[in-house]
Predict the structure.
Amino acid sequence: MTTRLLRDLRVGAQGLGCMGMSEFYGKTDDEESIATIHQALDSGVTLLDTADMYGPHTNEVLVGKAIAGRRDDVVLATKFGVVRDPADPTARGIRGDAAYVRSSCEASLRRLGVDHIDLYYQHRVDPSTPIEETVGAMADLVAEGKVRYLGLSEAGAATIRRADAVHPITAVQSEWSLWSRDIEAEVVPTIRELGIGVVAYSPLGRGFLTGRFASRADLPEGDIREKFQPRFAEGNFEANLAIAEVLRALAADRGVTAGQLALAWVHSRGSDVVPIPGTKRRAYLAENLVAVDVELGESDIAALEAAVPVAAGDRYFPESLATTNK
């Protein structure tokens, strides 16, 4: 696989999101998930993405088990900052104070079974803690050798500037896909001015852009998309089927799948962009990896963007803690 630079951190051109291996998207299978991670590493994927809130905690344990004996093959990324309530699986809080940063890192290192994290993200910005305090604590972890590079997830342009003034930010992780392009207005110009890389999560629109779902009934039982993602809500889902249909038709003309075409579009955003499509199955991993070699010319990109309708529904519900910080 070709590689790309996230500032000064070199990774495979496409990474692997591991969240769904442990929670959120239906039934899980640790054995298949570990096999998927191994196949990804064998295929040249280096960037593995997890977080302490996935599970919670169990996804880091799973990833740690999968990379045991293969640490040198991995650029290991994890995140802190979203606090789960054991008594209420749907509840979320955010913390970014210095003491929490340190305790979270120590806990992640233990669960992952490693002595350092390659890329450590603040998962969501804590509005009650100055970003300077949070990134200052993260910088201390770099100085101690527990973390190599720092990242932010879903941060806004002003916050990114303030953070980068404290310590170089290597990557900003945000949702970026054909139906989620809001970071292009302010965030992308800012991070390119600063030389920061982009890690694009949900580049397949949480699976919708692959055309896998013909109706809401196709979502697995207990899947969070049905209740917590507005674009999968009744009414919006049906309207958004037009996007999947357009992608399917355009992809067929090129001899690829809709998902491969959608991923190729994300790859075309620039050499500083690394998508991390998530999957827990080897078959989907293999399909996604084909997108690395799908080349789109300017006319292809223009035609694709012109043909894809605007998505119905916001990325997150207003009460969600997942919205972008300014």
Summary: The two ends are 35 Å apart (CA to CA).
